[in-house]
């Protein structure tokens, strides 16, 4: 648990899928934190955000005892290391399994997101159709990996929730929206 000498703050925005990843990880680990909503993320970023994440100027940012950590999956790796005794470990301890989890989380960020963006932001019907085609191909690859790694169990690594589930879990609402589109 984050005690008085272990102060955690999370800068976020309410609909942010990347923020949700960090909220999920904090919750699975049972870590308490102060949540600070970035009220006008797109038009008027707070001083705290600009100071804490001067490179990307994006949320989430975790601030641990005054020190900022940026980028959702890097924050989760940080939580694993800085709070190793808190709650269940999200990354497997075995080095190869750990690397496989990182590989698929990075695949989600690099491939799934870029194809979704094509659907949401494509300017022509052709661009949107190409985005849909790529999204379905990427999802099929992910499905294959999920069924191979989970061995029919509910989570990516089997019985317990982990790093890849958290990487995808932030997007559940988006996936429903994409299905409608
Ligand atoms: N790669 C980043 C992406 C973060 C991101 O895109 N955050 C969005 C909100 S969910 C944001 O801050 N957008 C503000 C902007 O683009 O100016 C991560 O994983 O944390």
* Shape call: flat
Unique ligands: glutathione
Estimate what percentage of residues fall within beta strands.
5-15%
Second rung of CATH, namely the architecture of the largest domain: Up-down Bundle
H-E string:
EHEHEEHHHHH
- Judged by helices, strands and strand pairing, the structural class is alpha+beta
In the sheet with the most strands, the strands line up as 2-1-3-4
Average pLDDT for all residues: 93
| Rg, Å, rounded | 17 Å
According to DSSP, the number of beta strands is 4
CATH topology of the largest domain: Glutathione S-transferase Yfyf (Class Pi), Chain A, domain 2
The CATH class designation of the largest domain is Mainly Alpha
Q: Oligomeric form of this entry? A: single chain
Count of folded domains: 2
Unreliable stretches covering 5 or more consecutive residues: none
Q: Could you describe the largest sheet, including whether it forms a barrel?
A: 4 strands, mixed
Total number of helical segments?
7
Distance between the termini: 41 Å
Helix content: 40-55%
Protein name: Glutathione S-transferase
Function: Is involved in the conjugation of reduced glutathione to a wide number of exogenous and endogenous hydrophobic electrophiles.
InterPro entries: Glutathione-S-Trfase_C-like, Glutathione-S-Trfase_C_sf, Glutathione_S-Trfase, Glutathione_S-Trfase_N, GST_C_Tau, Omega/Tau-like, Thioredoxin-like_sf
Domain GST C-terminal: 94-181
